[in-house]
Design goal:
By secondary structure, this protein is an alpha+beta fold. About 45% of the residues lie in helices and about 15% in strands. α2 packs antiparallel against α3.
């Protein structure tokens, strides 16, 4: 799995990080977490704050993958009812905003 855009979507992963770069989360296109990196400065935070940062970064990485998958379906002229419940760019933007406030 890689963040490389040239790979087929099924082999890609998506990474998101907190604005301060202290927490990184990598998620496969199917949604499972592949890795979490926590820098020393993040480890000085209370546990609930660290968890909040990990979850927010995971949400963004997951939604990046879902939005990429949705776009692929749209380009492939898949019937809209097959993916109408999938996350949208607006969902991703809202998650990025939440992450950006941490």
């Amino acid at each position: 799995m890689s963040d490389d855009d040239s790979l087929p979507l099924s082999e890609r992963s998506f990474t998101a990080s907190t604005p301060d770069g202290s927490v990184f989360v990598r998620v496969a296109v199917r949604g499972h977490v592949l890795g979490v990196q926590v820098e020393p400065e993040a480890m000085r935070r209370p546990g609930h704050e660290l968890a909040e940062r990990i979850m927010a970064a995971a949400d963004v990485a997951y939604l990046q993958g879902q939005v990429a998958q949705r776009a692929e379906f749209e380009r492939g002229h898949v019937a809209m009812d097959s993916f109408e419940d999938m996350p949208t760019e607006q969902d991703l933007a809202a998650a990025r905003e939440r992450l950006g406030k941490l």
